[in-house]
Amino acid sequence: MRVIPVSFPNNFLWGVSTSSHQFEGGNTLNQWHDWERAGRIRSGAPSGDACDWWRNAERDLDLCSQLGLNALRISQEWSRMEPAFNHWSEEAILRYRQIIAEAQRRGMRVFVSLHHFTHPRWFEARGGFLDAQAPQLFRHYAKRAVRALGDLVGDWVTFNEPNVYAAFGYLFGEFPPGRMNELNSALSVFAGMMRAHAAAYDVMHREQPSASVGLAVNYVVFEPARDNVLDRQLASAYDSLFNRGALNYLQGEPLPLPFAMMAPSAPQCIGKSDFIGLNVYNRLHVRAPWGENFSKGGLHVPGHLPQGDHGVAAPYGEAYPQVVSAAIRTYAVLNRPMYVMENGVPDSADRIRPWLLVNSLKELRRMWQQGYDVRGYFHWSLVDNFEWSEGWHLCFGLFELDRMTGERRPRHSAELYRQIIADGGIRRETLELWKNAPEMSAPAT
Ligand code: BGC
């Protein structure tokens, strides 16, 4: 019998994460469609047919079966479900029911997110999450979603990464509505999303008492670039706001000063998350004063550190397996089950992905062994997909996508993940092979 030194419990969830706009194709009713038409995609090409899931998700569900996955995370596109205010699409509901049933038939437990960065154009026109009515509107959608799918699905993620949505849309101008340096708005949007989360949590439990309703947060390790007070303070401010914002709301604690004065409180959020999804990719280095790199918020990635392919204008981030344990330790105070709900790297040549996969899983297993309640791992992602403002430039797939022919070609990491799942852990020779990060000589640009 083969001895597996890094082994996982039998009921561990092995999955991949996906999202509606990045995979379905033909999403023309949301605010991202307008953003794409306004020419805001750096590499040019819009989402278009994406991975063609609206017509044929089944082809990729077969790939999931080949990998031996027992879990899948998708998102439901609000703009398909409710294309106009209070008008619901039966066709969309039917298609989601089909996709979910097909995944379940292949042995996967399906987690459904209600909001993964996109929402209907009519909702954006009202001001998105700055609109005082946003929580009620989201609650209404959540109720409808549970009525439509609750007999099939029990695991719900209200929001994917409210921290990324607020920061990229209102501080960095990378996501619609493309506003920059508006800290007040970013904090109000974040608070609006947390209120909407609480409102959805309540109604979803009312509709489906057995539902498990959580939230997915992005967690980044912010490393002071130099050992000085300014770098340390800026890194700690990022950590408090970006990493711990959701935690504060769920615990009913104010954000640290001076941010607490700008961020509306929301005591209705306390305790309202049945699990936590952790989306963990990167370490970023923080250098103050901001000087010439002000627009990047003092964040950078030294070139010699392990990383995947560069974005069009900036590096994506340092690939950093230890972010897994940092996030788990931080969110463990909530005393709820945790899932690594996204982890991956842009890497078209699959140069560094195997190292990241093996070492992130090693970190996760180490935390589980120490008693942390972490129940699954979802890789981002199955197939190359539409990477937001980077368009098709950054490739996150275990499978490479040929957009001309629709062909999917497995990268080495697909076979590696399949083997790890089949073994229920990581072989000694695999650990040895991927002990060190590959040389940084030639990241693709
Ligand atoms: C997002 C995904 C995105 C991935 C890679 C995550 O923060 O949830 O939508 O594709 O990162 O950048």
Core attributes:
single chain; 445 residues; eight-stranded parallel beta barrel; 17 helices; 14 strands; binds beta-D-glucopyranose
The percent range for strand residues is 15-25%
Small ligands present = beta-D-glucopyranose
Helix content: 25-40%
Q: Helical region count? A: 17
Distance from first to last alpha carbon: 44 Å
- Structural classification: alpha/beta
Mean pLDDT: 96
Summarize the biggest pleated sheet.
Answer: 8 strands, parallel, barrel
The low-pLDDT segments are: none
Q: Describe the global form.
A: globular
State Rg: 20 Å
| Strand neighbour order, sheet with most strands | 2-3-4-5-6-7-10-11
Question: From the structure provided, what is the oligomeric state, counting identical versus distinct chains?
Answer: single chain
Instruction: Count the beta strands.
Output: 14
